[in-house]
Amino acid sequence: MFSHGEEVVSHLRANRLKTRLAAVLYGLIACSYLIWRPTVFNPQAWWFSLLFYLASLYGIVLGILMLRSCWNTGCRPPAPRDFRPTVDVFVPVYTETAEMIEMTVIGAKEIDYPHETFLLDDGRRPEIKAIAEKHGVRYITRPDNRGAKAGNMNHALQFSTAEAIAVFDADHIATRESLDRLVGYLKDPAVGMVQAPQTFYNEDSFLYRDVIVGGGRWHEQLYFMDVLQSARDLSDGTTGVGTGVVYRRSTMDALGGFPETTLTEDLHISLMLHKRGIKTVWVNENVAWGVAAADVTEYYKTRRRWIYGNLQACAHERVLWCRGLRWQHRLAYAGRALNLLAGWQQLFFLVMPLYCLVTAYTPFVPNLFNMILIVSTQWILMLLLQQASAGYLRFVPSQVFSMGLMFVQIVATQGLLGKKMEWQISLKNVLGKVAVGKLFMHVLLLIISVVAITLSLLFATHVIERPGMTGERSIMIYMSTIWVVFNSWRSWRWISDSVKLTRRTHREYMFEVQSPVLDESGAWLATTTRLSTQQAEVRWLSAETRPQVGALMQIPMPGQTIRVRVKEVEGDMLEIECVDENSHDRLRRSLYSVDWHRQIRLSKHMRATQERGLGGDWQPCLIQGQWALRLTAPAGFTQERLMLAGEYEVGQELEIDQIVSEVVGRRRVMLGQEITPYRPVPRGLNDTDFHFYEVLLG
After folding, report:
1. How big is the chain by its Cα radius of gyration, in Å?
2. Which of helix, strand or coil describes residue 500?
3. CATH of 516-592, one of 3.40.190.10, 3.40.462.20, 3.40.50.1010, 2.40.10.220
């Protein structure tokens, strides 16, 4: 219904004046600050002053690199449709669950573009081979796991003869239009890789926050995917993310296959391509839906591998002094490495105020003017950076995630030394588990901070006398105490978010789907708000409509009606089971065709979608007893809209059942003209097509 890339560009353009003004102010204030700071180095702690200056310089350089990427972004036009090379789709798997792998295989096999699907099983499991046979895809395994994912795909290359290779990870369910959105860019013979963003369907993961930015719910990787990659694409500098990607086969052969020397073959491939002058393309459209880390254990595991492997690739390819890289690419890779090393800066800013509290030494000449200017400048620069990012760099979650990643970044610095780290498999679970042991270092930081604050209070109240404590040094003690409290808050938020947000996950992800819930006779009982194949969260029409355990119900979904049995009723939550395997499969396919319900849910926030008259608060209804959604006349339009599963005749009369004031009412309407979406909603895994119509009241 909308182009994600166009929505991002629309959002950034709407905020461009204030973001660029904030960026200019950031640069002016930062440069002035850096020029002034050496003039107030503390002669009694010169080395301490220098370290503080270098840490500040490090942060400002990272900020300027971020602002450079926010300055100008774009969105590529749709891929050419007159270039149709042969394609083989690789699905590399290892220890992921069979149910997850089966959904990925279904998605890969049912991509509309002609292709052959290869299931690459590095776990050598009979149940995975059975999935391949069930769905008629090619099954490939090997006797060992040398080279991990890259080695698995290299082994499969010998069985592939296609002109292009597409890769979807074991947990990434491709949309039917995925290859149509990517492959055409290979028409340019200079292009070797076409990459789409890594997007996730389990938005109850603790990586997500309940705020919408640029067409989607904010998550930890949103700035990288929407802004940074789009900016790099302007200079053909896109880097790979390992899934939702298409490679030109001849290019991969020239590289010698997927690189096995590092942990992140995706970024390593990008670097190798850019060194050889081969273009890479970024398509900021959602072509597959994966599983985000559901808890801190999986988050640490994946981020450690990513950071370690990215630093390893930068060191292996010598990005600072190798031949072949354009200056834009060299700057991008160097900036990426600097950002991944930010844990060391965070560590210094943790230790510095604690050191000041204990020793009373300051990293600048201790007086009130210097303290106010330095502290206020740091806060002004942080706020300007948030403003210049148009909402992508949000203050609270950014501060919390930078604290959470600190120790992972420090440990993963070993990647610069080229040392091989053992491959760690992500479990790809949607049900998170609280792992207190993973939070030990942050608990320890809290304890140390409490002790330091207690000491500062004892000094300030003269319970403990400190020789040579002047008024100016006392002011520094107070400032350091505030800084320690701020760092303690960040640690506490990381601990509490890791626990609280993990507990909101479910054993199977519950999609935010609105659909009628009917009894066996077709009477409307409730409307779902969240739904999985095992559970349903609903809004009851009334307390009397709640069914008994064992009752049969119907849930209309796009193009079909699913029959389920009630296993348990607890308030607004139902435990359900499908009446047979066929119903379970059809419900699963409906839910994991993510785009149709995600786009409807987010349409009220979409600028370009609203301009087409398709954005707003869509509500479920029934058309001739079948699933549909209706939208009251959106702002600037006079007619309401219907979203239907299937194509209807303009002028056709239909009966609509809808809820008005908690009462189901029926009326007859006539379909007006069909509305063409900005970009069509992808067909569902049930082969469902979606159409939009104006409604002429009957």
Report:
1. 28
2. helix
3. 2.40.10.220
d(CA 361, CA 378) in angstroms, rounded, equals: 20
Residue 195's CB: how many other CB atoms inside 10 A? 28
Task: Classify 311 in phi/psi space as left (phi over 0), alpha (psi -120 to 50) or beta.
Answer: alpha
> Which are the contacts of 504, defined by CB distance < 8 A and separation ≥ 6?
204
Within 434-538, where are the H helices? 440-460, 471-500
CA proximity to 533, closest of 455, 585, 604, 472: 585
User: What beta strand segments (E) does 110-265 contain?
Assistant: 116-121, 138-141, 164-167, 173-174, 191-195, 199-200, 208-213, 216-219, 245-248
| Beta strands at 138-141 and 116-121: parallel, antiparallel or unpaired | parallel
Q: What is the pLDDT of residues 49-95, one digit of tens each?
A: 999 999 999 999 999 998 888 788 888 999 999 999 999 999 999 99
Kindly state the tokens that stand for 657.
């059942």
Q: What is the pLDDT of residues 287-345, one digit of tens each?
A: 999 999 999 999 999 999 999 999 999 999 999 999 999 999 999 999 999 999 999 99
Residue type, 176: R
Is 320 strand, coil or helix? coil
| 246: β partners | 166, 194
Q: Are 344 and 307 in contact (CB under 8 A)?
A: no
Beta bridge partners of 116: 88
**Residue ranges of E strands in 591-662:** 619-623, 626-631, 641-645, 653-660
- Nearest-angstrom CA–CA distance, 429 and 426: 8
- Both structure tokens of 632: 């009251």
DSSP 380-448: HHHHHHHHHTTTSS-HHHHHHHHHHHHHHHHHHGGGGGTPPPPP------SS----GGGGHHHHHHHHH
- Output phi, psi for 163, to 5 deg: -80, -15
Closest CA to 386 of 7, 25, 6: 25
- pLDDT per position as a tens digit, 118-128: 999 999 999 99
| The pair of three-digit structure tokens given for residue 609, joined into one six-digit string | 């979608």
Give SS3 for 2: coil
501: how many CB neighbours lie within 10 A of its CB? 19
CA 280 to chain centre: 21
Kindly state the greatest CA–CA separation across the chain: 91
The structure tokens listed for 453 are 């604050």
Bridge partner list, 191: 279
Please tell me what DSSP assigns to residue 227: I
Q: Can you name the residues that pair with 349 across neighbouring β-strands?
A: none
Q: In angstroms, rounded to a whole number, what is the distance separating the alpha carbons of residues 468 and 334? A: 45
Instruction: Please answer whether residues 464 and 262 qualify as being in contact, where contact means their C-beta atoms are separated by less than 8 angstroms.
Output: no
**DSSP codes of every residue in 324-358:** S--HHHHHHHHHHHHHHTHHHHHHHHHHHHHHHHH
Residues of the chain under the 70 pLDDT cut: 1, 418-421, 423-424, 460-462, 464-473, 698
The pairs formed by 583-587 with CB atoms below 8 angstroms and a separation of 24 or more are 584/533, 586/557, 586/560, 586/562, 586/686, 587/533, 587/555, 587/557, 587/562
For residue 433, what are its two tokens? 């588990």
CB 524 within 8 A of CB 657: yes
| pTM of the shown model | 0.93
Whole-number Å distance between alpha carbons of 567 and 577: 7
Q: Name residue 268's amino acid.
A: H
| CA-closest candidate to residue 530, choices 562, 508, 549 | 508
| Terminal alpha carbon distance of the chain | 27
Query: Strand 279-282 and strand 191-195: pairing?
Result: parallel
Q: Which fold has domain 79-292?
A: Spore Coat Polysaccharide Biosynthesis Protein SpsA; Chain A (3.90.550)
**Position 683: which residue type?**
R
CB 568 within 8 A of CB 574: yes
- Do residues 269 and 179 make contact, with C-beta atoms less than 8 angstroms apart? no
